[in-house]
Design a protein that fits this description.
two-stranded antiparallel ribbon, 52% helix
């Protein structure tokens, strides 16, 4: 798991500019690559801080935010720690959805010291379902579609293995998941009008494909498949930046972490749905506090931050509040500025 997230951090760092360049959905803010990179980096660094490379089955104390002993021989526990760190520091739509994916994938792996084809299939399926449900108004043609395709392919291949828990069976599932993810990325262009008009595939979908190929590479000890990206529409470093000449997106992105009862969480989601769009709410950590409140990561796009922040603060005391302009900064020549990336 540590090797996977390390590879993903490097890959997304190397590809962030190109992912940013084709990012136009749900808003053309040109930051999907950056947001995914920063979120995966947070997940990887959480393991760097808590999991020695040669830890084996040794237990060690983790930082206070984790709140318990790290079970270094427990795949699910380690991945849950990475997922929680990602959730706490998630950036944008793509980063938030990936952190949901990571947290959910950890659940079927809890208590297991070794990844098998059946466990991986269960993890990918749980993760894609949770990611779809975290977004108030999910649509196909995004990284959600890529997650779903990978999960379904993994389940189909695993079903044909008749309980085979060999490394060979695991490799077959990983290969199938990545192949299905690639096919789903190609399909995104025809699933969303904005992508079809711009002749590009979905940036978040490509990012998810990279992440899944990093998982395959880390588990099987093989090289990344750079050829996966060959021919993807718009995914060429020499192509012009597609944001040139596009109208600026109005509004802001509001994110925070807040402790809420289940009823208050449902109320907040409903009220944010009324105020804006791209509403994502996901629980951070499995346990409630003494008052029965769970911690939630909240994300929404709104025309004006004041009403959204007012609703949030009427229900609790938010932490890690961030408000970011959705408009992509451009210079007078029409080219994207360095800050915009």
């Amino acid at each position: 798991m540590k090797r996977w997230l390390g590879k993903a951090e490097t890959a997304l760092g190397n590809h962030s500019d190109r992912l940013n360049a084709i990012n136009i959905f749900p808003v053309a803010d040109g930051d999907t690559g950056t947001n995914l990179y920063l979120t995966v980096r947070a997940a990887h660094r959480a393991l760097q801080d808590t999991v020695p490379a040669d830890a084996g089955t040794v237990q060690t104390q983790v930082p206070e935010q984790a709140g318990h002993l790290a079970k270094l021989n427990d795949v699910g526990d380690v991945l849950a720690r990475a997922g929680q760190a990602a959730m706490e520091q998630a950036k944008g739509n793509s980063g938030t959805l990936f952190s949901v994916f990571l947290c959910a994938a950890a659940e079927p792996l809890a208590g297991h010291a070794r990844l098998t084809s059946s466990l991986l299939a269960a993890a990918l399926n749980r993760a894609q379902i949770r990611a779809w449900s975290a977004l108030s108004d999910p649509v196909p043609g995004t990284m959600l579609s890529v997650m779903e395709a990978a999960g379904r392919a993994a389940a189909a291949v695993d079903a044909g293995q008749n309980g085979n828990d060999s490394n060979h069976a695991l490799g077959l599932v990983l290969d199938a998941a990545v192949a299905a993810a690639l096919e789903a990325v190609v399909r995104t262009e025809g699933q969303l009008d904005a992508l079809q008009a711009a002749h590009v595939v979905d940036a978040g979908g490509v990012g998810m494909l990279l992440i899944l190929d990093c998982l395959r590479s880390a588990v099987l000890g093989e090289e990344l498949r750079s050829e996966l990206l060959d021919g993807l529409h718009g995914y060429d470093l020499q192509d012009p930046h597609i944001h040139t000449g596009m109208p600026d997106d109005d509004g802001v992105e509001v994110m925070c972490t807040i402790s809420l009862s289940p009823l208050d969480a449902a109320t907040l989601r409903q009220r944010l749905d009324e105020l804006g769009d791209s509403v994502i709410m996901s629980q951070v950590g499995p346990s409630a506090d003494a008052e029965g409140r769970y911690r939630w990561r909240v994300h929404v796009h709104v025309p004006d931050p004041a009403p959204a922040l007012g609703v949030i603060r009427s229900l609790g005391d938010p932490a890690d509040v961030s408000v970011s302009e959705l408009a992509l900064p451009r210079d007078p020549s029409g080219e994207v500025s360095a800050e915009g990336r």
